[in-house]
Amino acid sequence: MLVVLRLNSCQLVKPTVETVSHVIVVEKIVDLGKMELVNYQFHDNMTHKLEIDWWPDPEILVSVYGDAVGCIDFRQIDSTALTFVGDSVLIIRLPEPEVCQVKVDHQKSKVQNTSFTSISPDKRNLVDEAYKIAEQEIMKAALESGILENTKNKANEILKPSLEAISQRKVILQFPINAQQGG
Predict the structure, then answer these.
(1) Residue 70's pLDDT band (boundaries 50, 70, 90)?
(2) SS3 string of 26-67?
(3) 128-130-131-135 Cα dihedral, nearest 10 degrees
(4) I need a surface site. Which of 5, 117, 161, 178 has the fewest CB within 10 A?
């Protein structure tokens, strides 16, 4: 008796196996020492165009979401920043508030429309450049919206009660007088 197997109707399928390997090395550890006190969230609908002399200009419309964070760098404070007045008052000279982070949220941000991008040398560069410009505009908008003054106010609102409870003194927080902001 002769048995014939037909392999055409029965296929052996090897499951797809994904293999990932990593070698992660800590390159640097940085002490931050910055207390984030306020977070401004922005939404910007921007048009970014690349001007080309000989052809229609590639253009994209991007809906950009991003954040700017106001903070105070406590690494700048040492014992000379503390002044005790009698037994009841503590004056703490804090450094000038700063915008310690500006970032675009790439998960929420989207390219809404494109025009003539097929002729652009690299559409990805056009989008990346738009995000870089958006970060600069977020920084500008945060400063114009008073993020530094709001950071000072939040320091008084958040830090002062805690420091008074710890020191059992009236706490006065002082900031440098900044000529650009008018004090």
Answers:
(1) very high
(2) CCCCCCCCEEEEEEEEEEEEEEEECCCCCCCCCEEEEEEEEE
(3) 140
(4) 5
Predicted structure pTM score: 0.72
Number of domains in the chain: 1
- Averaged pLDDT for residues 49-54: 67
In a domain, residue 169? The reply is yes
Would 145 be classed as within a structural domain? yes
The phi-psi region of residue 163 (left if phi > 0; otherwise alpha if psi is between -120 and 50; otherwise beta) is: alpha
The span from the CA of 95 to the CA of 177, in Å, is 10
Host domain of residue 138: 34-174
pLDDT in tens, 124-136: 677 888 889 899 9
Please measure the distance between the N-terminal and C-terminal CA atoms of the chain and give it in whole angstroms. 103
Establish if 179 belongs to a structural domain: no
Could you tell me if 135 and 103 are in contact, meaning their C-beta atoms sit under 8 angstroms apart?
Answer: yes
Stated as kind and residue range, the H or E segment containing 83 is: strand 82-85
The residue ranking higher by pLDDT, 56 or 17, is 17
* pLDDT band with cut points at 50, 70 and 90 for residue 160: very high
